[in-house]
User: Fold these one by one.
Assistant:
Number 1:
Amino acid sequence: MKFKNTLPFALALALLLGAGPASAQVSTPPAGDYIYEGGSGALRVKADGRFDITTIGANAHTCALDGTIVRGKAKLADSGCVVSFAVNADKVAVSTNGAEQCRDNCGMRATFEGTYTRPTPACTDKAVASSRKSFKRQYDAKDYSTALATLSPVLSECEKTLDWITKDWIRNDIALTQLKLNDRAACLKTLQPLAEDAARTDDGIKENYPPADAEIFLPVVRAARTNLKLCRG
């Protein structure tokens, strides 16, 4: 069974934190919004050091926590859990002291440890939503070249911070636009990451993904099946 948003956080953090003080400093991150690995959550930091984190893991399990960062660390209220923040350019590596109480903030299949990235202006949630809205207006007006030029950069530039469902819906939209422009080869290439799942039956998707993940992924897969058939001709 596949579990989305499950990554080797301990290894990634060890590599990042072991890179030396010149590249990563335990300190309070600059105020702003940061996106969790794979677009599956967010870290919000205020100018006074207040922060909150929300993430989502496999089968819709979540984490939620907040507190105040002081010299790069935050001790959660009424808990032995200490959260550390290591800043490296536009990234923040979040780790804990390993206290069992840290798990009290999360469901079984979720974690908040890992890397959070400050998105570029074009990749914020608001900017992505605006680009998708413009794309739809252009697509509905049959201005396919402009629509493709609007949406393609979202996938290429924001792939690391888009959540997996949004990313795959965008793949479907781009592929269908490429088909409208009579570029079947490009359409198939865009949909290639979805081809393996599209070849499965609905029951096969349910067998390979946790229930909540399968429920939100099935509409994406069904669209990909249709689009792959159209692109193959």
Note: Strands lie at 25-26, 32-36, 41-45, 50-56, 62-68, 73-75, 82-88, 91-96, 114-117.
Number 2:
Amino acid sequence: MISRQLSTMSGTVPPIVSVVPSRALVDEKIKVLVENLPPGSPVTLHSLHHSEDRDYWEAYGHYVSDHRGTVSVAKDLSFGGTYTGKEAMGLLWSMHPVPGSRKGLRLRKRDVCSPMLVNISVHSGHIAEGFRQQPPLASALIERWYMAPGVQRISIKETGVRGTLFIPPGPGPFPGLLDLWGGGGGLLEYRSSLIASHGFASLALEYLSSDDQYPLFSIIEAAFSILKDHPQVIPERVGIFGLSLGSILTIFFTAESAVIKPFCCVCISGSHIYPSGKMLLMCAVTCDGRKLNKVRLDENNHHIWRDVGRAIFHTPSNQVDVGKVNCPMLLVNGLDDQNWPTVESAEDMAEKMNAVGKGHLLTRLEYPDTGHLIEPPFSPHFRATNFIVEATKEKVIMLWGGQTKPHSDAQEDSWRKILAFLQHHLYSSLTPKVKL
């Protein structure tokens, strides 16, 4: 527990902010407690994070101390701020860029070997601005980690494969997961490192490459083989975890690949469209350099791609034959996904798999008022963020959808169920595979 006493409101004993645990994984809950306040005092709890991109993110809640002069974020009501009600983790999931920040920001951890540092402070009165100008009554600095102690981080660079392998602590071997992010590209490690912290060897793969020497499909197949053949990985217990474009590719490889035979799959915000060649879903949004008329703009000029997905999805020749899927698959989707028709796709997949007697392999999670970017729990909600369209390199602001509170609830609930799904299928010796 880390706490700094800075000043007093009244009396001789200074207020104290305590956070337990002060050092934890990002998916662990914390308890924030303020003590030594005058009874019935209005105070504001504030969180502040300075990101690796040098942007400031904050959240705050308005509280009134009880008869003992304490405020418990988990037990007491927030009467206003970026969240309201009893929300133990509101100071984290309701974070947003401070006023005056750049538009379209998204908070993502790049260096998983260092923690996210969050300063939690208490201020006199109910305030909504000027936190950095007003000295706090007390504050505490906490560490939020994506990588648990003992997790190994191994850089992979071979046969066109660029990624990072995370191995859990302990003797092993462990079940494995190939981690495929979306069409924004880049090497993102934070989900894989968190997965490894829960006992699964995970390979975060950068599969969108401008190097035509290594085609997209070959990169993913080679990465799957590298993971499966690692001495710390159980070769017959390797799955795939995809988001957005990564989920589209996961579904395709699961149904069609002669090389990749996953034991189970998790697909967040994807669909069963057929990725032809070096497809890069983003290229489907342009035609001869011109945007298709299916791309819509909202009142804020945010790009909405749902109708683009519908146009592709409703052409039967563009659909993967999901009747060929032979492993358990978990689909996680938001009912307010403004980027892609993921729910419609899930319904069609269920219908087609039921028709061939494989409906039992499919598990669906759907969440109201939840958008496309379903992240690990207590991550901020991003309704619209900057995005570079692969085909044109144009920078736009993409509308992902969702409302902050229900989206955040969905992130917490889905992560718990994803881990349970992976634990059940990858660690259980009783889970039968469908005969080919």
Note: The first helix runs from residue 90 to 93.
